[in-house]
Design brief:
The chain is α/β, with parallel strands linked by helices and 415 residues long. 18% of the residues lie in helices and 29% in strands.
Length: 415
């Protein structure tokens, strides 16, 4: 199946390239200073680590058994005879007796190896003779350190996790094992989201003729919630200067970043840049050479970074991933360069691309270890359902050639 994505004849050289727009955007991080917070371990998921975490102990803290069985010394010449079971070692309750010639200690998984022992025979390889006496089925096969987890195999005291990690349940488990119940994390930036448009109404409100439910802010806020942010959805601004300026004025007084959606094109009702300029907006760029998302702009208003996203739902969501998330990651100190670009093989032929860099909605799947990506047939920027059905974006460079089936293409996985 051939997918027609259109071929733009547009040659507007006043558009900022995506890479240049990102660099200009990153310059805005200087306006945001976030403090550090100390929080409990159980409340740290999703936050960004801002202090180094060092292990307080070795893990395991001693040589321990990895199986249920019997602790012996592999060099004991009496292993081929009857062994006396002289003690029991359980996790948290180590044996007191020392293993010597002709003896063994019953041991359980996670228990400390007793003095004198250097190997564990699993219980299935042992025959019980009578109470406290055993014989080993294959004594000649016993080797040192068999079924033994050596001290510090996982990590040693002082092992360090550096700042900049987004804390996941895996990190929480590690930090707990290292002995920490509190962590130093980066404060959440407060990000105000302003939707603009007379046609918009809040979800849950009675639906009137010629209105649509406002969705952009909810998608963007959900993205930000995944990234240790505090998003605030403002009341919908109407298509007039007073309403837009009122929301921008309030947002500029109590925000680390302002995001607008809608009112960023060139129509008669696209007033957001004009309103922001009247309040003192300094622009970094006004339009970007991408599809979707050409009207995206950015600057700073009263030393608060402002990103203006398009009003079409798909454009706003895609551009939030392409512009807003990279800036946020820089600001919160996350040591990840976003967006993360990988590659996959095309399942469908794609026509040549136009002048604008195109981020094509698509689905990627793993087929026997090979990543296969299928572009969606419909790429209109108003199609929210198509976005919901997509899990990645295919990156088409400006003036890209025709792509055939099995060609490798770059992709960004959608959050």
């Amino acid at each position: 199946m051939e997918v027609d994505l259109g071929h733009s004849s547009e040659k507007n050289h006043h558009l900022t390239s995506y890479s240049e727009a990102l660099e200009l955007l990153f310059g805005l991080q200087k306006f945001v200073t976030l403090n550090d917070d100390t929080i409990t371990l159980e409340n740290s998921r999703g936050r960004v680590l801002s202090g180094e975490v060092k292990a307080l102990i070795d893990n395991p803290p001693a040589d321990v058994s990895s199986m249920d069985g019997y602790a012996v010394n592999s060099s004991d010449e009496r292993l081929n005879g009857i062994l006396r079971v002289i003690d029991v070692s359980a996790a948290g309750n180590p044996a007191r007796a020392q293993v010597s010639a002709g003896s063994a200690v019953r041991i359980f998984t996670g228990a400390k190896l007793p003095e004198g022992a250097n190997s564990v025979i699993i219980q299935e390889e042992v025959t019980s003779i009578k109470k406290s006496e055993i014989s080993i089925n294959n004594p000649e096969k016993i080797l040192p350190n068999e079924n033994v987890r050596k001290k510090g195999t996982d990590f040693i005291e002082g092992t360090s996790i550096k700042p900049g990690k987004i804390i996941t349940p895996k990190e929480i488990m590690l930090f707990a094992a290292m002995g920490h119940d509190k962590l130093l994390v980066k404060q959440k930036p407060l990000i105000s989201i302003i939707s603009i448009g007379d046609e918009l109404t809040k979800p849950g409100n009675p639906h009137k003729k010629n209105q649509i439910f406002s969705s952009n802010a909810y998608g963007i806020a959900s993205l930000l919630n995944k990234l240790s942010c505090n998003p605030v959805i403002f009341p919908i601004a109407r298509d007039n200067m007073e309403s837009i300026k009122r929301n921008l004025d309030k947002a500029s007084q109590n925000s680390d970043i302002i995001v607008t959606t809608g009112g960023a094109s060139v129509g008669a009702y696209d007033l957001v840049k004009s309103a922001a300029k009247e309040l003192g907006l300094h622009l970094c760029f006004e339009k970007v050479n991408i599809r979707p998302g050409k009207p995206t702009f950015a600057g700073y208003l009263r030393n608060v970074p402002l990103i203006g996203l398009p009003g079409n739902p798909v454009s706003s969501y895609v551009c939030a991933q392409l512009f807003l998330l990279p800036l946020v990651m820089k600001i919160i100190g996350c040591k990840v360069d976003y967006p993360i670009i990988s590659s996959a093989k095309l399942k469908s032929k794609m026509n040549s691309n136009g002048f604008r860099k195109h981020f094509v909605r698509a689905n990627m799947r793993n087929d026997g270890g090979i990543r296969i990506v299928s572009p969606k047939n419909r790429q209109d920027s108003s199609l929210i359902k198509t976005l919901q059905e997509s899990n990645c974006l295919i990156i088409r460079p400006s003036n890209d050639n025709i792509k055939d089936v099995d060609d490798l293409v770059d992709i960004i996985e959608l959050i």
